[in-house]
Amino acid sequence: MITHDEFYSKKGEKNRPYSVRYNNLREVMRNNTCACLSVLGQELIKDDDHFAEWTGKAKEYGWEGLMLRADEPYKGKRSKDLLKFKSFFDDEYEVIDVEMGPFRYVKDGAECEETMLSCVMISHKGHTVRVGSGFTIEQRQEFYQNPKKILGKVILVQYFEETKNQDGGISLRFPTFKYLYGEQRDT
Fold first, then answer.
1. What is the 3-state secondary structure (H, E, C) of 172-184?
2. In terms of Cα–Cα distance, which of 184, 5, 183, 179 is closest to 93?
3. Cβ-proximal residues to 175 (8 Å cutoff; 6+ apart), any chain
4. pLDDT tens for residues 133-162?
5. For residue 173, how far is the Cα from the chain centroid?
6. Residues 40 and 114 in one domain
7. Are residues 78 and 94 in the same domain?
8. Sheet arrangement for strand 154-159
9. Average pLDDT, whole number, for the chain?
10. Fewer CB within 10 A of the end CB, N or C, for the chain?
């Protein structure tokens, strides 16, 4: 819990860590009679085994992931004190096609638009899946100039889960390009 002034100043002036703020909130809410307000439970992760137990629960209950919070004072902005943890899968796929198109990005503080690689297509269980995230601007430019450098090659793709596409076919949620393998594979 933080005070009104702390929230609007975007700074935890009293330098109270999260555990103190949380316990203060629980104390204030102990006599709460309003059914629309409640304090969500928190779990202190003690070690790697305890963390593995909670990631297992997240998977078992179908949660998207876990929120991990450091026991730090309030910061009224994004920080590494609150992180989202999701389990991802990765797999190798052959690039079966490429798609080029206009791509917007920021260069030297100015927005630019340039034709380059938009995405690659892979086959996942017989269904075509587009992979557009994970490429650097330089890779997008290079593969636009030389599509043969990625067409037919094996890439590593990371994804959150298998899902259904608009047509009822199989797709991947958050597919992200991670690595391009060379002609010869080390196994």
1. EECCEEEEECCCC
2. 179
3. 122, 129, 130, 131, 133, 157, 158, 159
4. 999 999 999 999 999 999 999 999 999 889
5. 11
6. no
7. no
8. 127-131, 110-124, 89-107, 154-159, 176-180
9. 89
10. C
State how far the Cα of 115 lies from the Cα of 99, in Å rounded to an integer. Answer: 10
What are the tens digits of pLDDT across the range 21-71? 898 888 888 888 888 888 988 999 999 999 999 989 988 998 888 999 999
Is pTM, for the whole model, over 0.70?
no
| Residue 136 C-alpha from the chain's centroid | 17
Please give the Cα distance from 180 to 187 (Å, whole number): 15
Within a domain: 187: no
And the tokens for 177? 């390009």
Spell out the alpha helix ranges (H) of 94-156. Answer: 137-145
Name the band, by pLDDT with cuts 50, 70 and 90, for residue 96: very high
Cβ atoms of 135 and 117 within 8 Å: the answer is yes
The CATH code of the domain that includes 116 is 2.40.50.140
